[in-house]
Amino acid sequence: MTDSKVCTKCGIDKPLEKFYVAKKGRLGRFAHCKVCHNQYRTNNPDHYKQKDRSAHLRRAYGLDEHGFASILASQDGGCAICGKLKAKMCVDHCHQTGAIRGILCGSCNTAIGNLGDNAEGVTRALFYLQKALNA
Length: 135
Hints:
Largest sheet: 2 strands, antiparallel
Structural class: alpha+beta
């Protein structure tokens, strides 16, 4: 077995350690070396940002971009809590069952997570705010 490989981008024969590991690649490595891969990724950030997001949605929630957009549209195009459409929108899900509850903005997603991700935490916060406003 060989311990080197020619990069398909730069054409240089390099040791296998210079290639990222790949499940399906020849010799168990990607076709292009780490340097070429990183350079391409740096020069094409939007391509990888979308690709990474799509892969995350599929892997974590079994959801594709169309499914994400459908849920968002059913919420009138914004966060299920505050109604705003922000740059960072998150899939809110039950951590026990994995069931998707809706799409939230990053702020609302963090808020309910910090409140214990349950109705009791949110209710306690609501009572606290009502008490403080009436004082």
